[in-house]
Amino acid sequence: MSGDLTELYQQVILDHNKRPRNRGKLPTANRVAHGDNPSCGDQCSVYLRLDGDRIADISFDGSGCAISQASASLMTTQVKGKTAAEVEALYEQFHHIVTTGETPEEISDLAAFAGVHTFPARIKCATLGWHATRNALKGDPTPATTEKHTD
């Protein structure tokens, strides 16, 4: 990855950490899920308003490291308006990026997290909000925990 692209990706992460999008409790949410990363102390609650199978609105709240908070923020911008199947496909793409460092040919903000693969403990930080969102979509009240996942 070129230095310019690496710097751009770092700026995306820093921007989402400093100025998170869709942060706060969503008063119209009809699905809520919580996620916990005990190894890092990250916590993330995701609030969804579903319209059928489509995410009409989404927000998150929580605390944790810059990677977890920036990832949750970026995730909310990527999944709003998507169906559960589309969110699952995006999660698979994101998971591939953070575990391998390989990025899709088309430039995507999700690729900003490609460098996470060099820090395996941070993969859990980056995927926490995604796991909570997936639970919310399934209507699963069980808190998502990174300790249950092999990533």
Number of domains: 1
What class do helices, strands and sheet pairing give? alpha+beta
Instruction: Provide the CATH architecture.
Output: Alpha-Beta Complex
Query: What percent of residues adopt helix (DSSP H or I)?
Result: 40-55%
Query: Cα distance, first to last residue?
Result: 23 Å
Q: Which stretches of 5+ consecutive residues score pLDDT under 50?
A: none
What overall form do the CA principal axes indicate?
A: globular
Biggest beta sheet attributes: 4 strands, mixed
* Strand fraction: 15-25%
In DSSP terms, counting alpha (H) and pi (I) runs of 4 or more, how many helices? Answer: 4
CATH fold-level topology:
Sufe protein. Chain: A
Gyration radius from CA atoms, angstroms: 14 Å
Return the string of H and E elements. Answer: HEEEHHHE
Q: Which CATH class?
A: Alpha Beta
Per DSSP E runs of 2 or more residues, the count of β-strands stands at 4
Descriptive report:
The protein is an alpha+beta fold. It has one domain (3-139): Sufe protein. Chain: A. Helix content is 44%, strand content 19%. The protein is built from four helices and four strands, in the order αβββαααβ. Strands 3-2-1-4 form a four-stranded mixed beta sheet, with helices on one face. Helix 1 (3-18) crosses helix 2 and helix 3 (84-100) packs antiparallel against helix 4 (120-138). The longest helix is centred in the last third of the chain and has 19 residues, at 120-138. The two termini are 23 Å apart. The model has no long low-confidence stretch (mean pLDDT 91).
